[in-house]
## 1
Amino acid sequence: MRNGWFILTIIVAAALPAAAAPGSISGTVKLAGGSGPLAVVYVEKGPDAATRAEPASKELEQKDTEFRPRAIWVRAGDTVHFTNRDNFYHNVFSPTPGNQFDLGLYRGGGAKSLELPRAGEIDVYCNIHPNMKAKLLVVPDGRSTEVASDGSYTLAGLSPGDYVVVAWSAGHEPVRREARVRAGEAVRADFSLRPRDASAAHLNKNGEQYGRYK
Amino acid sequence: MKNAIAALALLAAALLPAALRAEEPPLRAGDGGGGFGHLTLMDGVRLRLTGYVDAGFFGTQGDGTAYVRDAGKLLHPEYQGVVPWVFLGDPWGNPINSQGDSADLGLDRTNVPRFDPIQSGGHPSFLVNMVNLGLAASFGESFFFESSIGFEPRQGLLGSSGDQFDVDLAYLEWVPFKAVDLHVFAGKFESTFGIEYRTRKAPDNFGITPSLISRYTEGELTGLKVRGAFFDQRLTVNLAVSNGGTFTEKFAHFFNEIDLNGGKTVSGRVSLLLPLPITAEIGASGEIGAQDEQRSDATVQWLAGADLRVTVRDLTFKGEILRGHADGGGIDQAARLHVTGWYGELQYQLLPWLGLLGRVDRRKADLLAFPNLYLTDLLRFTAGVRFDISWNLIAKLEYLHLVEVTGPEIPDDVFTSSIIFRF
């Protein structure tokens, strides 16, 4: 009987870590044509995240007729504060379907806040200054990471299962890859991103050309 | 007492900067927000109404005119027997609003019909400078229509109202490609010369008055225009073929709505946004064509110029220089013009609600509009201040000091003010 309990204990001990041991996805992101302002790798689909992070906030400044930084990423449910640090009026709007918004005009020193409940890439513009452009990436949850300066990344703490992972950069076309994570194992996924075509002009918040003053 | 405290609290709340007030709850992306408002009359066509009202108060030195007659041609005897009348100064050197209207055009000693819209006689006066209405319509992402009409309540004469209206814009804009920033315009559209036309309307102008050379560069063109921006908007090319040039010379010596001749005007500007950490744009403009207001295709007018715009944080410098010529003469006795001019303007947005302006400009010209000869060598200094009360409401003050470089000094300084409501 004692031997029986001993064997059962060993089996349970062996089985438990295997079920709970998280895996990871790591690799490199190569950005053709040089690095962008920001590159992120995130989980687009996969087993539910073990924990849900509390909503956080980030700031996107308007300074010297530019958005600074030109790209940021947040998690769905987070808030972005748009602070006008110029001494003149700015507007912030996005025509991106599903994440459309218009924060209106506000003078220097003012700030507006925007909650981002839906994941996706959002184009951000100013309705007065057509050259002001920024990209906002809203990732579904906390399973995301910025790519290091040497191009490497690691998504750790992933439950076993099948994942769709996206490598995203503001200046490049995003690339999706599927990966199967097994308990305690590290899966490798490398990405190579091509530059986006940034030549096309955008429309103003009314869906019109920016006007005659060019 | 309680009422007084309550009123004081309300006033303080109104004056507090937005940042110090209770923070507004965040908007949610996907909910649309406050924009995207259109009046839709037909399927797929979106309409938008815009406009502004510009009212002001002005006062001038002297009798409100900025030129004098060289009586007996004492100062210019070389024109004895050449032209009947010689005038010194610049009739449009003392503008009181964004259209460049002069406070007074003085007595018409020559019996040549002309319109003097303000005739203040040197007396300070309130004035509605402009009521402007604009209608914009867009169809899909490729077609856009804009029109703008300005109404100006002005001084009448002998029972006529004197009020004016001007259709300053009426054009169709076509964007043929999604991936290329190329625009084709047909109708009556903005100038292709220099950079000052961008701020010719009161709400867009940092100060109140235009430069001394704006009369050559701000005129709208009727015809066809192509504008393209390339290399991430660093290179912009503007080219137009039109009835006439970009002159808006107010005695109408160089402007026709309908062309009187068969020769068209070709105009254009090439500009480069320099690859610097600051915003620095340089441009070169030119135009040439059959002279306006006369019938011959062989009588030519031309303009050539360069411009610079630099922005470093809250400080913007912009400047332009030009040279122009009109042959004149012929069976219509068309006006003859030789002109050089320039301006440099500094704009400083000191605070979000307070801006300061300084400008120096110069115009040297001889304009023979028979039987009148206008000889001008004018240096002008302008100081201004603007208050951005809100996006819709702007107040401005400006003082212009005129120095006649050659010829008699004329008492023609101007104080002017403007309050603008735009929508």
## 2
Amino acid sequence: MTMASTDLEVPTLNFAAGIPGFPEVRQFALVWWGDEDGPFSIMTSLEDSSLEFLVVPPLSFFPDYAPEIDDDTAERLGLASADDALVLAIVTIGDDPTGATANLLAPIVVNRHTREAAQVVLTTGDVPLRAPLFGG
Amino acid sequence: MLVLTRRPNQSIMIGGNIVVTVLEVRGDQVRLGIKAPRDVDVHRDEVWAELQQANRAAALPDRSAVESLERLRRQKPDA
């Protein structure tokens, strides 16, 4: 499943509303990490290059994940259909990589065409904030 | 704290561009509708606090830890 940054010609994501915890940053460069067939990307702030997040298309670890984006968010990001959206999950590695988790509750949703992005809290379904990447 | 009394379908205007409308009051629950500009993020307060914490914990992943993670992924057939 490689639906991430290769689709974006200039992978600069614009978070108009910032990201919770980091209200001062708005723009991130999305850079593929490691081998081409790996799922991971690094999101680096353009305002503060020391601020990075590891992100992954959730389907590469959670094949049943089907986030439902609410209408208000779709409107804010200018998403006309599900195909317009690129969904990424922020990964937290913590002390031990075997315990790494992905934030499925609040995925990053990107409009593939405009690169407008937001961290969106899902309001439907019961999805975890910390989903173990490796079986739990 | 400013305290205002509103009825269902009445609103509060904040800063000229944010409108909070009381949609429904049922028992101890109140449903609110919020209209805000695109650059204003709106969250339930407790979710916001949790997200802030989670994002801070996720920030600045160590490169060697990312490498370990990728090695782990390659070892697991299901990922």
